[in-house]
Specification:
- The protein is built from twelve helices and 16 strands.
- The chain starts with a strand and ends in a 10-residue tail after the last strand.
- The protein is of the alpha/beta class.
- Strand 8, helix 8 and strand 9 form a beta-alpha-beta unit.
- It has a six-stranded antiparallel β-sheet. A five-stranded parallel β-sheet has the order 3-2-1-4-5. A five-stranded mixed β-sheet has the order 6-10-7-8-9.
- The protein has three domains: 100 residues, Rossmann fold; 121 residues, ATP-grasp fold, B domain (D-amino Acid Aminotransferase, Chain A, domain 1, 2-Layer Sandwich); 81 residues, Dna Ligase, domain 1.
Length: 340
Amino acid sequence: MQRVWFNKTYSSVATAIKLIREADLAGHYELICSNTNAHAGAFLAAHEHAIEPAGLSGDAYLDWCLEFCREHSITIFWPGKEAGLIAQQRARFEQQGTRVLSVATRETLALMHDKARFCAGLDLPIAPPAQFCAVDTIAQYDRAYDLLRPLHRKLCIKPSESVYGLGFAILDEERSGAQLLLAGAQYHVNARELRAGLAEMRQFKPLLLMEYLDGYEYSADCVADDGLLICAVPRKKPHVGGQGQLIDLRDDILQACTQLTRSYRLNGIFNIQFREGKNGLALLEINPRMSGGIGMACAAGPNLPYIALRGFDCGFSQVSVPPIRNGMRVGELALAVELP
């Protein structure tokens, strides 16, 4: 039996653990989950759970992970927190009998987290990123705005480093901040008020000022084996909420996923985001982790967390990938539970 450890990560790990247990009918895997939050929902899905010490990072956290693997006889480590550092030091884990399931090298993970640097070096003609400028001073912002605004009907802004769309906003040139608030216009900011706020700061964290893509968004959950795409399940997100999402096996999205996987030698599970604009399909970002919608992708056929784990453990020649139900409408329902 393999003892598999998921350290602190995003809440989607609960769904992943549940899916693995559902598919692991022969009981090959014992799943351990840890978090600094003693009431983490993922604890309910795991065979075992542990509380991580708060405040650890960098080498101190790495040493704690090495000790945790020794003490708990971990044979496979699927890291979330400090994934880049752990990937770089995977040999130290292997020396004590723990294999590390990493999405990419530390350098590649750092590149993907820096959207400005990642998009600037991207070669993906089938789905190029939206036109953008990286800015961290008001002078740079003004030059970028003067360059981009005449070319695009709408602009948007987002941090160069963020998750779950935090910090993203569409620039509104007509409604004030109060009007946007009262209208319930999420992800919008008044353009003049934004500029005034940025001008008050001498310098700020890097932002991307970019053309706003107003078409459909696609989220592709992928499994790969060291640069070889094994499976990709793209989900199309309707503009209107409450309608779920549609499984859409678009050829251009699948081709883009294949190329990106090969170019960055991606591995395990990751998520690639696309959106349509006036020039067609555009890449938004690669998330080197399981998406929040991983369960919806798996409802269409392939159990992606189990496929990734089993393939890493035994080789993908030993894993069968079921057909994907193209056109299926998927959604999620909230479920109330008692937490630990």
